[in-house]
């Protein structure tokens, strides 16, 4: 019997703060943390064999259904952040990821966050991922 | 006895969806809803006598400490959205606003959201708004 | 003989500066002027009967082939800008617009700009707009 | 006599296209190329000993006075771009950089661009960089 390949349930991603991400408070605008979570998430998915451009090509759309962020310590131009993501839950229809945004060493916590996602087809209708994209389903099952 | 001027606890704001706010899913990128909440919030604050540029000039910084959004129905280029904000809570140190993003008639719910805020001085240190900005405190009290 | 309906060769558009458009210099980030030109341009096109969402639905894509901006005086949160656009040239394949970004009264010149555009079909191939979209061609001719 | 340290007149920078940079045409929105030039430019400056956060701390502001971009071939989510920048001219008051945006191998030209910059003090007044920031002046001289 073949062993099921296990995919890592966490992923770390590095982002260099860009000047255009700052605002007049001289810190990164809070909306960009939501974008950083996306950067980390899509890098994570690509790493476990689910590059999002290929998923879209195959007609599987994975929109954000919820996003939240708790801001703990501001980030500034000249800094680099580490975003660590963890697969929290997958129920066959939706999945949820949590995020920690820290300095590169992990000693300063800048923010924590969470996003939720579902699966749609090209017509933006919900799909049963197990049926319509079994290979994707298998990856999500292998987190468990 | 003077009547205390009451400020409205809700505010409605209109935003025309911009093409640059869309993404490759052909809908508005989810991070922009966080920006729309800011647009509505700062318009609201300006309307009740707390224009944010003047607050910053006086050394009162009001950062976002939390933000969340539940996405219900996508928005597209060519649409207009109405963002309705409500003051949920003010405890002297922090305040929280909730948001509803709908079509202009209010018949399609696109998203709901919530943001939390605190008060800082120019050195990004928390301040007691009652002491350091009594006029601002009074406005926040008058929601009740 | 029917008079050809003339469309205005200029358009004025108002934009309220958003806080999220500022950067750590405490002024609007220069990339946003490019976005403001788009806001003005698409509002202009909608006003002359060429709403861009409808054009895309009909398979006519109008990408930006060039963009430039000369920055004269910074803009800040709390300000409103007027963007005036003028149809500079249309040669059947491409068109060019110029822009002036000023304060609402037109007394402070914040920036000038120019964008160039072509016409593509859904496969991102150049099209002869006269043949493939005669109604659009007619509008562009009527500027003259 | 000490040899004057020469700084490289060109710089190459890699950017991974982000999903939030795309628009409803399913390609990267044109305004983001202006931001990519900034990414490349500030990375370049940091590499030759002029990290922009430190320059700002010392009171030297380097705004964009002009920006232009010619778009040649669209970029999409899933792609990586190489931005190559070259110091075109420095006249003591202003400097100009040109940019080439290509695929990583340099075989597909996505865009070319150019930005101009001046030097301001904290009050946003033009400064003579030779007098007010001789170390910065020396770096800019050493391109020649």
Describe this structure in words.
4 copies of one chain form a homotetramer. With 144 residues, the first copy, chain A, is of the alpha+beta class. In chain A, strands 1-3-4-5-2 form a 5-stranded antiparallel beta sheet, with helices on one face. In chain A, a hairpin with a 3-residue loop joins β3 and β4. Chain A is elongated and about 50 Å long. The mean pLDDT of chain A is 94. Chains in contact: A-B, A-C, A-D, B-C, B-D, C-D. At the A-B interface, α1 and β2 of A face α1 and β2 of B.
What is the global morphology of chain A? elongated
Quick one: biggest sheet of chain A?
5 strands, antiparallel
DSSP strand count of chain A: 5
Order of helices and strands of chain A: EHHEEEEHH
Report the end-to-end length of chain A measured between terminal Cα atoms: 19 Å
Which runs of chain A of at least 5 residues are low in confidence (pLDDT < 50)? none
* Beta-strand fraction estimate of chain A: 25-35%
How many whole angstroms does the radius of gyration of chain A measure? Answer: 16 Å
Specify which chain pair forms the largest interface.
A-B, 22 and 22 residues
Q: Structural class per helix/strand content of chain A? A: alpha+beta
State mean pLDDT of chain A (0 to 100 scale): 94
For this structure, the quaternary state is: homotetramer
Instruction: Count helical runs of chain A.
Output: 4
**Percent range of helical residues of chain A:** 10-25%
Largest sheet: spatial strand order of chain A: 1-3-4-5-2
């Amino acid at each position: 019997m073949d062993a099921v390949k296990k995919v890592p349930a966490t992923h770390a991603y590095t982002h260099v703060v860009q000047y255009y991400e700052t605002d007049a408070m001289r810190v990164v605008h809070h909306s960009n943390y939501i974008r950083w979570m996306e950067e980390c998430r899509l890098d994570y998915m690509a790493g476990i064999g689910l590059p999002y451009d290929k998923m879209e090509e195959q007609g599987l759309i994975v929109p954000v259904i919820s996003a939240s962020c708790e801001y703990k310590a501001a980030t500034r131009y000249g800094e680099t952040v580490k975003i660590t993501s963890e697969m929290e839950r997958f129920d066959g229809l939706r999945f949820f990821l949590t995020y920690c945004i820290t300095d590169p060493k992990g000693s300063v916590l800048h923010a924590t966050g969470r996003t939720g996602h579902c699966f749609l087809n090209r017509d933006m209708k919900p799909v049963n991922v197990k049926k319509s994209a079994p290979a994707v389903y298998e990856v999500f099952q292998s987190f468990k």
